[in-house]
Design a protein that fits this description.
The protein has 297 residues and is α/β, with parallel strands linked by helices. Helices cover 42% and strands 19% of the residues. Strands 1, 2, 3, 4, 5, 6, 7, 8, 9 and 10 form a 10-stranded mixed sheet that branches. α9 packs antiparallel against α10 and α9 packs antiparallel against α11.
Length: 297
Amino acid sequence: MPSPRISVCITHYNRPEKLGATLASLARQTRMPDEIFLWDDCSPKDPTEVARAWQDKFPHFVYHRNERNLNMPANLNEVISRASGDFIANLHDADEFDPRLIELWAAALEAHPSAGMVYCGLESPIPGAPEPKFWLAPEIAPLTNGRAYFRKHFLHKWSSPIWGTAMVRKSVYDALLPFRDRFRNWADVDMWIRIALNHDVAYVDLPLIKTDEGETPLRGFDWKKVFIHHRMVEDGIRLYCEKSGARARLPLLIQHGGLVLRWMRFQAGALVQNDSDRLKKGFTYFWEVLRNSVPPL
């Protein structure tokens, strides 16, 4: 049986100084991808020179620079639409990858035909710390039933255990694309939720990705990000109940109640720390919290 073709899709925005290390780590893979697509979203800092330096280092390397900024979901949809591999890995532009990443991800999907996607543990450097932080989850099995995965890791939760990098079967992307614009830079989480509700989830418990911990506007707490995540989980609850024949009203009430509780904890923390700016910011979002805390009938 022939080995599956593997595509790697990299979305890039404004980090050309780190892109070389990303591509160097891909060049060291024990299982070389059959094709690599690098899509720059009209970055103010042009990565073209870096991309050209690496284009001859891979069997098939395609670099494209958008004429205008599409934002993350549209740029990711665009690059994935070019991929022809059986397995498609979407990777971040400033991360570095263990030489075994592509090989182990592909092996996991081959070993578990019911898995729609596979992800892995992470290594995160901490500025000023002698050792990095490792994000591993030994309690997660190599293969988990997708709906059980949703219940444990997404239902009434406020973060995603899956980083924005994963390998997905092309057939799964063909059925579930696009990454939805309304979820902005966190549209990947919505995709992982939808994959889990339609397929099983595979996991490799090794820190195969060294994440970039540089400062970006997307890091840190942001109420807009909380509302987006809330709506993604809300959509997931409806889909889960639709597939299981259950009523969505109670889990939606619990989800929306959790949003109010999160706001109250945020405000209490601001009071304890005597942080007036944080307190004012919380009250700014008070009506938005209330508007989102009553699920539709």
